[in-house]
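Intended use. Records like the one below are meant for learning the mapping from a protein sequence to its folded structure. Do not use them to infer anything beyond what is encoded.
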Amino acid sequence: MTCNLRPLTPHDLDLICRQRNDMFRSMDLGEDLIARMDPAFRAWLRDRLADRVYFGFVADLDNRPVGGIGLMEIEFPPHPAHPETTRRGRILNLFVEPEARGQGVARQLMQAAESEFRKRGLTYAVLHATDMSRPLYEQDGWRRTAEMEKVLAPD
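Structure written out for the chain above:
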């Protein structure tokens, strides 16, 4: 399936929030956590869409959104993977509607993301992968890294 890709705009705020919440639902996160996170994300995203710090694409099929992907350019110190630059791409919130999965929509969105990063001069990108999405990324040359995380409790 080939979709029409269009750039995200501030008018896509509700769509992005709904797709992100559905993405987290598919990961079996609790509704209470999603409900707590949504207002803070919505406020953050409104500003990032307005100043274009958060950009990306919506995949439309028959004038109906069937997927989306968020992108950011982030500052990061020089690193063995990019020793001479302080810029890297960040992919967030890749989502494809359940009825459109397995038809190439995610791959089309990922190719558009990589192309957009290259246009912006970014030569290194990162993302977090779920068990469901990892094979798609690995087929396209993405590899696992040694990153770890820890949630710190407030004092």
